[in-house]
Amino acid sequence: MTLVVAALTSCEKEDVGETATVSLAGEWMVTVDLVDASGNVVMEDPYGMGYVQVITYNTAANIPTEMWISDLGNFWDFTAKVPCDASAQTFGSSSPLTNEAYECELTITDGKVTFGGTLSPSGVKADAIEFYITFSDDDPGMRYLMKGYRRTGLNGGAK
Fold first, then answer.
1. What is the pLDDT of residues 130-139, one digit of tens each?
2. How far apart are alpha carbons 99 and 102 in whole angstroms?
């Protein structure tokens, strides 16, 4: 009898749940524009890169007040732990953050995720992301606006 109970108990599924930053986490396709101090676009896509991939994901602490953000080396090669507010879908810090990809600091400000806030290039409604970013090893005054959409996984023509 004990053997049967043990066998049935071991087959139960455990509810894994969601991470603390699930509302902010994802794979994003973003454009990079050079902006002035007021956030006005000075030059669209100054490096001719088109869309670049950025990912946001939970930290090991699994708390709603911090997350990782990385461009996986697609733009500047940055990976940083950034303060966030998962319930408000915002992130950023006016204080410099350590770049874990290589030795430099970066600042991310005014980050936000808007559910259903944009369209993907194929016309599918998608979540939007945008944030400003600066790097300590860039020319003074260089500030970038990264904005785009959460990757939907749908192919180009799907609507």
1. 999 999 999 9
2. 6
